[in-house]
Prior knowledge:
Elements: H1 2-20, E1 27-30, H2 38-46, E2 50-55, H3 60-76, E3 81-89, H4 93-100, H5 106-112, H6 119-133, E4 137-141, H7 144-153, H8 163-166, H9 181-192, H10 202-219, E5 226-232, H11 242-249, E6 255-263, E7 279-284
Parallel strand pairs: 2-5, 2-6, 3-4, 3-5, 6-7
Antiparallel strand pairs: 1-7
Helix pairs in contact: 2-3, 3-6, 7-10, 9-10, 10-11
Amino acid sequence: MKKLVRLSIVVFALFLMSMKGDMPAYMLFKADGDNAKYKNLVKDAAAADVVLFGELHNNSISHWMEYQLTSDIYTANDGNVVLGAEMFEADNQLLLDEYLSGKIKERNFEAEAKLWKNYKTDYKPLVDFAKEKDLPFIGTNIPRRYASVVHGEGFEGLDGLDETAKSYIAPLPIKYDPELPGYKGMLEMMGDMGGGHTNDNLPKAQAIKDATMAYFILENLKPGQTFIHYNGSYHSDNHEGIVWYLKQANPDLNIITVTSVEQDTISSLNEDFKNTADYIICIPSSMTKTYSN
């Protein structure tokens, strides 16, 4: 009996040592920095009208979590989900629809669509999930050429576009609050970087993206569905950006935000990252990147 007790103690000690030596790929936190359970994230996300998944574009864990959470929300909601992403511009919707419906081949879609350089590793799995499950996948972002117009000329530069061009943008004029911390911070950051002057249109170019993504989310969301949207974390952090525009259109929307952050150690959440989202995925800074900047 004593031998058995000693053996149990040794096994338990080895277990504790192994736990101490664990190197988790991520930790999940709630907004206040307390540890969160993944099953609670799935539960909350499945009950939401809109889930905004804020990613780090080149972070492998961030992309893996996008796929896993999408799959689990799909299961929890009996398939009543819509997918959409910043990474696809609104004028590529026809190509997306044709590929998802099987009307065009994959090679034609990939040759003609404006795909990000990490499409095959990071976004193709999500598009193919939509194809396999017969789900809509919405390109929500403003065509980059029109965002460039705003960067150069302000919102007024969009007035001269024809109606087809405007159909790829949130209805004009858009609301814009330059005092939102995210937009204000962009200008301050550019000022701190020097260069002699700042471009007041820079946050406007960001805002037209946020407004357009919010618009196409709402245009494609039906009652009883959850719209899962993938975007850079800066588009939804601190419940600004896309969130602000969604709430301007419908204050009653149930929105869950997820963000991704990197830290050297992930046992606890840095103060600066608290309250950036409803759920925070904390990833080691040394995690493998899917591409280099």
